[in-house]
Amino acid sequence: MISLAELARLLDGKVPATIATCSADGIPNVSLISHVEVVGDRQVALSHQFFNKTRANLLATGRATVMVIDPRDGRLFRLAVRYDHEETRGPLYERMALRIDAIASQSGLERVFKLRAADVCEVLELIEIQGARVPEALAQPRAGKPGSEVLASLCGLRTLSVGINRADDLESLFSGVLEVMAGVFGFEHTMLFLPDESGERLFAVASRGYASSGAGAEVRVGEGIIGTVARAKRLLKLSVDRELRYARAMSSYVGAEAGREVPLPGLPDVDTQVAIPLVVADKLVGVLAVESTRPLGIDESQEAFLSIAADHVALAIERMMAREEEEADPEPVPHMAPPPAVAKRAVRQFLYYPADDCIFVDGSYLVRNLPGKILWKLLSARVNEGRTEFTNRELRLDASLGLPAVKDNLESRLILLRRRLEERCPDVRIVPVARGRFALEVDADVQLAEKPA
After folding, report:
1. At which of 100, 115, 135 does a domain end?
2. Inside any domain, residue 338
3. Burial of 132 by CB count in 10 Å (0-12 exposed, 13-18 middle, 19+ buried)?
4. Kind and range of the H or E element at 418?
5. CATH number for 391
6. pLDDT tens digits for 228-251?
7. How far is CA 336 from the centre of its chain?
8. Which of 150, 169, 199, 287 is the most buried (most CB within 10 A)?
9. Which domain holds residue 23?
10. Side-chain half-sphere exposure of 221, counting CA atoms within 13 A
């Protein structure tokens, strides 16, 4: 017989729970329910949003039946519950609201898909419905030997720690972290986001497992699972099939327009999304986002390990950025003439929009905001002055770039810019040549044009 604590893991699956209630005069009502959360040893919390009939029945009779399916093997469990009280604030309410806010943001239902209360109910009975199973071929694999996940997580933390200590710069740190997340934790599709100077957006600086890097993709704080985690600074896991599609179905029910999603690289058949905040002393350093085509059964102990791993990564990023800013000034870079012209070279036309520092190359969008402003400075210096090498320090001292005086994230922006060029314009490259110094290598004839506001 399964315990209520064991049932908690099933509630993260892709199969929705069902709630059955009855009115005071005996009329039954059955609905899907967005979220059920185990509270202690004898209680569960049901999300109260806009199912007025279900809520009215629950308050009228004080009773409901909840059906939960184990997505691994299709076992069916029935909970008989009795209404106890509602919570509209506090840790339980905040946990449930965080999940629902992320779902609402990704499905365009921020105004209607809100948690009004967490209805806490006492579990009177928990039984398994015998004979209810899916074919063995469709069942999800179960966990290995007891304690194996804990040991694997400890070894993973050790591997992550070693990789962090060996990283020479931010770029090797980012790639090393994502490699460990894939090789040790089994997360094959990951993206790393950092906050921009305003603190209102995050930008993708590294990724693994996607057809394109997604470098430069932006997310507003509070938007989707990534933005919601950035705002709340708490780990969040969503089953896309169960929860996001549930929200879309509800959009037609309430008459709202749905379908808007964050325009980021992603898996077409994604099942589960996990976002982990990177925080140092309550300051958001970044967000690590994970996608999977399979359900990721993450229990409380695994969440704790991931949170510890995130703390290591956050501290490493913060330390590496501080080191980049405090390192000794390199020798001044002399102005150098561009290399001799080569016959039949490609021509790259860069168009710059000063209004938002947006740059197009050969008619296609390349980059904008601070990375765009930096690239335009580098290209202009090369074309007009014949320069091929630059230093981080001179960029930091250039008032026209508007870098903040503290924690300017310059190195991460150069990484983003380098990756955008690799994808969109590979014959223009930003190549590190020494600590705090880089070269602008160009294998094409560059033409610059500026579009007035």
Report:
1. 135
2. no
3. middle
4. helix 410-424
5. 1.10.10
6. 999 999 998 887 655 555 554 444
7. 42
8. 287
9. 4-135
10. 16
